[in-house]
Sequence to fold (106 residues):
Amino acid sequence: MAAASAVRAAGRRSGRLFDIFVADIPWTVSSKELKEYFSQFGSVQRCQLPFDRDTGFHRRYCWIKFSTPQDVQNVFQKDSHILEGAKLALKQQPRRRRSQRRSQSE
Fold:
């Protein structure tokens, strides 16, 4: 629980959420490998790869946060991203503050 509150606090300080949502990640790819792959486009601040408590496997999607908007643009300049033979599905996340997200969901 302490780790989760630290993540929320870091999000409030930065005012940004994650930059990119990545789906269709092969089961065999780890968060370390994802960070290494995306670091070729810029400085990766964080890679969040959620796991399923019941199965112990990751859920085949993650969020990536970069240091600068230019790093994000570098990712989308490449046509396709392939890891271990699987094409990743990427979507750029809008840059919103948490307070904006809360007010839109109400």
Notes: The radius of gyration is 14 Å.
